[in-house]
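lol ok so funny story. i was supposed to be doing the assay writeup but got distracted and ended up predicting the structure for this chain instead. priorities right. anyway since i did it might as well share w the group, maybe its usefull for someone
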Amino acid sequence: MKRKTTVFVNSRSAWAKGISVAVSAMLVSTLGACGAMQKADQLSGASGASAEKCPVAVNKDVKGTIRIAWQAIANADLIVKDRKMLETCMPNATIQWNQFNSGGDVVQAFGSRSVDLGLAGSSPAVKSVSAPLNLNVKVLWIHDIIGEAESLVTRDSSAKSIKDLAGKNIAVPFGSTSHFSLLSALSQAGMDSSSVHLINLDPDKMAAAWSRGEIDAAWVWDPVLSKLKADKGSMVTSSAVTAKNGAATFDMELVSGDFIKANPSAVKTWTAVENYAVGMIASNPSSAADSISAQLGNSPEEVKTQFKGYSYPNASEQSKIFSDQLPGIFKATAQFLKGQGDLDAVNDDYAPALYTTAIDAVAKQ
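and the output, tada:
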């Protein structure tokens, strides 16, 4: 998976039929990123920050180890991790944080039953619950709605649209939300399979490939996105644009169906803690940015800038999105992915893949 691979993309124009423009516009107005490599470091606990008092009801009933897949994305999950909220709110459990590069490998980890909860983008999430994988996982939470936080940048300052990149080498982590947005942008532009060369490249390899002139453009998220922009990169388009045109993307939390069955109260506590952390981003962005920067290794000011590229819905907002929009969005995403040859079949109904019990309960509190 880490090898660099060049493939031609078979773009389809039917995607925009899947989601109404009204729904997509709403998602953008309420306004990452996930890909496919597990990193070697598997961390238990946070980065040295002292544990704080649990901000929700303490749950002493949960025991054993909870294995969580996290990613370096500027959202509330990193606040929870940095402040050891799960450790203090479930004091009799062992919280094991395992870092992954992107959602494709998180899905593989669920397939091997090596994680219980994990962050993955909406397109990997759809793949996980569709044929041929059909994993026993549910979507538990929306970490963020992706906007300009994932963007296409190019070394060619004269390129003003994706059509101007015809024949160029474009890097993207395969299986990620950026990959999905790139394929959607190509489709929306009417570009065929001979238009571009896509290179499967992990975000942590992009800056070096960019500086060596091996890639002409990249669709990626921060902190790599900012590095490419600083190194003479020009933005061409973004996931905010593809969302407005009918291809919204999200960072989501997946949870094992077996884990839900065995630990329903742990799932509710996890959701309540994440909802509290989302509120911190809205009410105290400076404090939230301090925690996230400690996990990402950048400055709080850089994190605040990254906040602008995402939207962070709370439990009440998510309860409505889960019931009213996600089943249709998932089906439309699956139809697009099937057209690209990434799925064997589209489910008749994606509502069963959405676990709403915890969100609905937390939204009422």
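The first strand starts at residue 5 and ends at 7. Residues 1-48 have pLDDT under 50 and may be disordered.
back to the writeup now i swear
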